[in-house]
Design a protein that fits this description.
This protein is an alpha+beta fold. It has a domain of 45 residues. 16% of the residues lie in helices and 17% in strands. The protein is built from 2 helices and 4 strands; from the N terminus they run E-E-E-E-H-H. The chain has a two-stranded antiparallel sheet with strand order 1-2. A two-stranded antiparallel ribbon has the order 3-4. The N and C termini lie far apart (64 Å). The relative contact order is 0.11.
Length: 81
């Protein structure tokens, strides 16, 4: 954007999501860390990603409605929660 021979740079105030410090970033840029924290974050190991999604072990079959209907029901007195 130009205003009478001057270039206008739009900035926005942002807090660093690592240290909580305030800094200015260019408008429409998605950076979330200040310059100092970006340098420190480079020293950290990269996050590990699992090759597949974690799956819960399943034992036995699926219960039918008749099997669950015979389960005992425990109820307390009303208002004693």
């Amino acid at each position: 954007m130009e205003v009478e021979g001057f270039e206008v740079i739009q900035l926005e105030l942002k807090y660093c999501e690592r240290c909580g410090g305030l800094w200015l970033r260019l408008h429409d840029v998605q950076d979330v860390y200040c310059a100092l924290c970006v340098v420190e974050m480079l020293d950290l190991p990269a996050p590990r990603r699992s090759a597949s999604r974690t799956r819960l072990p399943v034992t036995g079959g699926v219960q039918t409605g008749q099997e669950t209907a015979s389960a005992p029901v425990f109820c307390g007195k009303a208002g004693t929660a």
